[in-house]
Amino acid sequence: MDTPIIAITQLTRRFKETTAVDNLSLEVRAGEIFGFLGHNGAGKTTTVRLLNGVIEPTSGSMTVLGLNPQADGPRLRARTGVLTETPSLDERLTAWDNLSIYADLYGVQNKNVNQRVSELLTEFELANRAKERVSGYSKGMKQRLALARALLHKPELLFLDEPTSGLDPVAARHVNELIERLARRENRSVFLCTHNLVEAQKLCDRVAILEHGRLVALGTPAELTRQYVRQLEVEVEVGEEQMGAASQILQRLPDLVIGEPVQTKENLIATLVGREAIPDLLAALMQNNMRVYRIAAQEADLEQVYFTLHGEKEAMK
Amino acid sequence: MNWRAIFAIVRKDLKVVMQNKGVLLPITIIPLVLFVVLPWLTALAPKLVNVAGVSFSQLDELIARMPTALQQELAGYDLSQKVIVFFLVYMLAPLFLIIPLMVASVIAADSFAGEKERKTLEALLFTPTTDRELFIAKLLSAWLPAVAVALIGFILYAVMANAAAWSVMHHLFFPNSMWLSLIIWVVPAVAGFGLGVMVLVSARAQGFQDAYQLGSVVVVPVLLLVVGQISGVMYFSVGVVLLLGLVVWLLTSLLLFFGSRSFRRGKLLLS
């Protein structure tokens, strides 16, 4: 898990006045699902293109699978598979043609082409419509076919650019299960570009968050939530007759509680300054003879990390 | 050079073209008109001259305005035969060049600009092909069918011209050495020229129609050759054809040289 499969150092790519990737440095380890998060236009697609030697950097260096994408582009691309943001399929051709032609392009051995294509069409549940034109396919089917195409040559490293974008929840889950299987069972490394934070939280071993081409955070989802989301929301359940009193107690703890607690039918919802405030809060309630039935902290997730970072950036502007 | 990958792209582009009526119709209908309809119309000309209000003497005058060398080549024929040989052998020769030019341009527009428009280019750019392999594949995708259509058209035209004019000519008069030079030497060059123009145009065009319209100027030199021949300024002798081929090959080489320099996957993606 420790060998870097991608190593990027101070990578920058400018397009005229716009800096799409700005001084980016990071490493991706072999076998991990690496989430590359950012809003539209954050520089995710540009980074994928740079890492595959499709476009050249303005400055900086990178190695992917031990190769320099600029100098060894063709050799590198023979070992990577890319699912582009749009499926980029020839819609006038059948699924079979789309795959068999790309099998030739990716150098799948001649004698294995039919078998490999057939195998993937079956695996992606497209076999019964393999001879139909892709133009008649649903969005989910097209996405599955594009993913199958990226896997034709059994790449060591997969770049997936918004793989579930525009898919219905069932199709999205199917794609996510597939990504997980590829990484966990088949030991492929996955570089997952997404702005779907729930998906990233669920799938990724580590994530990088990009903002206007700049890396603003890097780590496991748990590390990032600990690092960036200090505030914590807790639900406090006390006896119904003690709700008002409990609320007043919480309001008298400005070092622990931010703002006024919200009183609902069943409990109080309070925002704490951090996880470390929970024992003190509990102690204060007990000292005031409150009968506490439950304190539930809502775990922070990547979404909160993302919006915290985004808020910080906006505030700095 | 990865020829398997190159021919995979050629196969892909040809399959896509075969599914596109907008591309397929012009490259089928125009050759059919030129190679089938025109020979029969021309062969009927001697019978129709009076109906059309044109007299044989007017056609004779037209031929008399042609260069001396052409008149010498027509010397052994009677007037009806002269009309047929003049039109089917000499007048149609420059017009024939429209076929490889048009087929190459239409397919190249679809292959270069059309692919960009359909957003199918990106997947291709992420394959292990080099820029040069991609460029050669794209050239062959348009050049091979252009030359093939011209060759098939030539054979069809030879059959049609001889069949249609048999009652007047009484012998096989087509092709002559000029036509063989045209097919072997000029047609491949002209197909390359159409391609070269389209490569440069497609780099700036946003889609197939855009590229096709911009690139349609390629027929202008051919039309000038047609006009030059009708007006008697020049005629397609073997020497002229060989020289024409040389000029077109040189222009094609220049266009493809500049085209290949601008053909970088990064540029294609961002244009």
Unreliable stretches of chain B, pLDDT < 50, 5 or more residues?
none
Q: Please tell me what the overall shape of chain A is.
A: elongated
Give the helix level of chain B as a range of percent: over 70%
Annotation field: number of helices of chain A: 11
Distance from first to last alpha carbon of chain B: 26 Å
Using only CA atoms, what is the Rg of chain B? Answer: 21 Å
**Quaternary:** heterodimer
- Helix-strand sequence of chain B: HHHHHHHHHHHHH
> How many β-strand stretches of chain B?
0
The overall strand count of chain A is 13
Query: Which regions of chain A are unreliable across 5 or more consecutive residues at pLDDT < 50?
Result: none
Tell me the strand order in the biggest sheet of chain A.
5-6-7-3-8-9
Mean pLDDT over the residues of chain B: 86
Given helix and strand content, the structural type of chain A is: alpha/beta
Attribute tags:
heterodimer; A: 317 residues; alpha/beta; six-stranded mixed beta sheet; four-stranded antiparallel beta sheet; 28% strand; B: 271 residues; mainly alpha; 81% helix; elongated
